[in-house]
Amino acid sequence: MTQGRPLLNRRLAEFGTTIFAEMSALAVRTGAINLGQGFPDTDGPEEVREAAVRALRAGHGNQYPPGPGVPELRTAIAAHQQRRYALTYDPDTEVLVTAGATEAIAAALLALLEPGDEVVALEPYYDSYAACIAMAGATRVPVTLHPEPSTGTYRLDLGELRAAVTPRTRLLLLNTPHNPTGTVLTREELAAIAELACERDLLVVTDEVYEHLVFEGEHLPLAGFPGMRERTVTISSAGKTFSFTGWKVGWVTASPELVTAVRSAKQYLTYVASGPFQYAVAEALSLPDSYFDALRADLRTKRDLLSGGLAEAGFDVYRPAGTYFVTTDIRPLDSSGDGFAFCRSLPERCGVVAVPNAVFYDHREQGAPFVRFAFCKRTEVLEEAVSRLKGL
Ligand SMILES: Cc1ncc(COP(=O)(O)O)c(C=O)c1O
């Protein structure tokens, strides 16, 4: 306190230390296997790492790179969107490189929102969304994805989404494939969202960082739906696709007007970041399809290993169609259904760290009995975790 006032401002008062910091500290203290935070325990392709070393040695990006990102990377991002999705973006005016998807989300929300605007977002949501909406002075309006125990999946109720839009709604904030539920929005759902956005003249920010980690169905970028190209800010990053989460290379693709707006905020957040890594990611984006296929196949096997093990350990498992997280219902093992207490005691009880999904909800009670495990770890680590969890 100074002047009788808390130091942290009102907008951020509800956002203390993230659950990931708390749980990762618990993992270190107890020596538990950390399936809480989503980062791979092995680095991405050797040739991509070497490309970063080469860039560093050649003096590429060691000084401030250009504000929008180095031309090589912007060209590679545009080529990726064309090759994968037949979406055409001009590398000079419609692509912006950011410090990870995290900065892209922050810059987009800070640029596009006025205080008092409402943002409709799918709940549970990735924790930075709520904080960035708050920093922009806007109001979040959650639309809850519902667990369906009979299918082991989460579903979006399109009627609820439509009902959440009011005259104050400025923007829809989407995430597909979705963290933490693993939901991949279907063509029909995306078409309905696009129709709603056009009808109500809404902007859409869509976080597609798990675009290459889809095991069932396919990833469809919302920007490809009728009427969406001009109102959609698409965000992705290299962290998940190439297993270099520490490099923090992300990007935005959107119309020139939207990119200009987002860049206005971005230039005063970091200005630029990750110089030499931008060159390496440009090369990574040009890897052949076989790289992306192998990544997906490897993670699908790991998903099945962990999901199967969790089911055998007694959890009800929601098998993800995408991402590298699996959500479980703890109630068969713990009748209190208190995911927070469960996760806090899990390292002591069996040497594994997980994250309570309640932290991703405004309606905390909706997420209370659910717990998330990450499977982007080496097979032997997952096998050991499963064997420990079976001892519960
Ligand atoms: C949905 C989602 N968006 C964004 C990010 C962050 O991406 P980056 O590391 O590129 O900032 C994550 C990381 O966990 C995520 O799960």
Please explain how this structure is put together.
- With about 400 residues, the chain is an alpha/beta fold.
- It has two domains: about 10-45 and about 290-390, Aspartate Aminotransferase, domain 1 (Alpha-Beta Complex), CATH 3.90.1150.10; about 45-285, Type I PLP-dependent aspartate aminotransferase-like (Major domain) (Aspartate Aminotransferase, domain 2).
- It is about 40% helix and about 15% strand.
- It is built from 14 helices and 15 strands.
- The strands form four sheets. The protein has a seven-stranded mixed sheet, with helices on both faces. A four-stranded antiparallel sheet has the order 11-12-15-14.
- A hairpin with a 6-residue loop joins strand 11 (about 315-320) and strand 12 (about 325-330).
- Helix 4 (about 100-110) packs parallel to helix 5, helix 4 (about 100-110) packs across helix 9 and helix 11 packs parallel to helix 14 (about 380-390).
- The N and C termini lie far apart (about 45 Å).
- The mean pLDDT is about 95.
- Pyridoxal-5'-phosphate binds near residues 38, 102, 126, 207 and 245.
Topology:
Layout lengths: L18 H12 L2 E2 L11 H12 L13 H15 L9 E5 H13 L5 E6 L3 H9 L3 E6 L1 E3 L4 E3 L2 H7 L4 E7 L11 H13 L3 E5 L24 E6 H5 L6 E5 L2 H11 L8 H10 L4 H25 L2 E3 L6 E5 L9 H12 L1 E2 L1 E2 L7 H4 L2 E5 L4 H11 L3
Helix pairs in contact: 1-12, 2-10, 3-10, 4-5, 4-9, 11-14
Bound molecules: pyridoxal-5'-phosphate.
Gyration radius, rounded: 21 Å
Percentage of residues in helical conformation:
40-55%
Beta fraction of the residues? 15-25%
Domains counted in the coordinates: how many?
2
Ligand kinds = pyridoxal-5'-phosphate
Which architecture name of the largest domain does CATH use?
A: 3-Layer(aba) Sandwich
Q: Supply the CATH class of the largest domain.
A: Alpha Beta
Catalogue the unreliable spans. none
| CATH T-level fold name of the largest domain | Aspartate Aminotransferase, domain 2
End-to-end distance, in Å? 44 Å
Could you tell me the number of beta strands? 15
